[in-house]
Design a protein that fits this description.
- Helices cover 23% and strands 23% of the residues.
- It is of the alpha/beta class.
- The chain has three domains: 157 residues, FAD/NAD(P)-binding domain; 126 residues, FAD/NAD(P)-binding domain (3-Layer(bba) Sandwich), CATH 3.50.50; 32 residues, no CATH class.
- The chain has a six-stranded mixed β-sheet with strand order 3-2-1-7-19-18. Strands 9-16-10-11-12 form a five-stranded parallel β-sheet, covered by helices on one side. Strands 4-5-6-20 form a four-stranded antiparallel β-sheet.
- Strand 11, helix 6 and strand 12 form a beta-alpha-beta unit.
């Protein structure tokens, strides 16, 4: 069973089915959204007009996955995991029907959710995130309403790409960030070059200025971004403040989490026996010995520390690992004798 049907989840589902075969393995995948296997990184280029449609960002459609033998259930959210009973509770978002499904092995691929600061007006209409294809479609619809001014909060990858996209759509755009320079994952001198390039495109860049809230106008729609340096008028606001692990399900199920909210796993990305987790921030401390690589440090983030070493030490640690620490294709995942049943039935 797979929870989360984007890149990681559907790659795991497809690989498991390919290795075991449909006569041995049944794979059920749940996805609460409308789409699967798409390039979220391409959304700013869709907004800019470089990509013609959302379909161009989809690597494999739901119909193709189903034709390959995966029982893919869209618009269905897993709301509870019972590890003792080896069941999940799923709810059909368009109909409200809940039911339980049994599993032998479970892959958690819930990914991340955008950071949303607890600030006044943060949920006002006219404020957009950029994570899913539905988000991209919402921004494009907003652009057809001819907004006069856009403000992007956050100067990271998504913030900069969305600022460029809206400039290319003809909008005046301001990027505001509390960091000294945009792209804080880079060295400061590189951030200066990024700022200069943005300003060369016509983007106004304000750095070192925290955002404290969002003003709203008639109808409750966003009308400005409030900062410690004053209020920036805006009728379209994009938040690009990064993400955090979507680990609420794992936490509620009792799986161990690290200080950032990521699921702690062993070297096979396994947590609590044969339950699997995939994605970023999965192994940070304590679950298994780390391998020694010259570039093991998390890119651009000093909090993501890992042991620094060399190739010979890495080889030694690999030799010392128990054979159970090596990844093997998962077999026998069919949930025989555990038919779907209605919750409370």
């Amino acid at each position: 069973m797979v929870v989360g049907a984007d890149a990681a989840g559907m790659s795991a589902a497809s690989q498991a089915l390919r290795r075991a075969g449909q006569d041995v393995l049944e794979v059920v995948a749940f996805e609460r959204g409308h789409h699967v296997s798409y390039s979220a990184c391409g959304i700013p280029y869709w907004v800019a007009g470089d990509v013609d449609s959302a379909n161009a960002l989809i690597a494999r459609s739901a119909a193709e996955h189903r034709a390959n033998g995966i029982d893919l259930r869209l618009r269905t959210e897993v709301t509870e995991i019972d590890l003792d009973a080896s069941t999940v509770t799923a709810t059909q978002l368009d109909g409200g029907v809940s039911y339980q499904v049994g599993f032998d092995d479970l892959v958690l691929a819930t990914g991340a959710v955008p950071v949303r600061p607890n600030l006044p007006g943060v949920v006002a209409p006219g404020r957009y995130g950029v994570q899913t294809l539905d988000d991209g479609a919402a921004v494009l619809r907003a652009l057809t309403e001819r907004p006069r001014r856009a403000v992007v909060v956050g100067g990271g990858y998504i913030g900069i790409e969305m600022a460029e996209a809206m400039v290319r759509r003809g909008l005046p755009v301001t990027v505001v960030d509390r960091a000294p320079e945009p792209m804080a994952t880079l060295d400061p001198d590189m951030g200066v070059l990024v700022r200069e390039a943005m300003e060369g495109m016509g983007i106004t860049v304000l750095t070192g200025i925290p955002v404290t809230g969002f003003e709203t106008g008639p109808g409750g729609r966003v009308s400005g971004v409030v900062t410690e340096g004053g209020t920036l008028p805006a009728d379209l606001v994009v938040l690009g403040l990064g993400v955090r692990p979507a680990s609420e399900l794992a936490r509620a199920a009792g799986l161990p989490l690290d200080e950032h909210g990521g699921v702690l796993t062993d070297l096979r990305m396994s947590s609590a026996g044969s339950r699997q987790g995939v994605g970023r921030r999965r192994l940070r401390r304590g679950a298994a010995p780390r391998l020694a690589t010259p570039s093991a440090r998390g890119i651009g983030n000093p909090r993501h520390q890992a042991w620094q070493g060399d190739r010979h030490e890495t080889e030694r640690r690999l030799r010392d690992l128990p054979r159970s620490g090596w990844h093997r294709g998962q077999q026998g995942l069919r949930s025989r004798g555990r038919p779907d049943r209605a919750v409370g039935g």
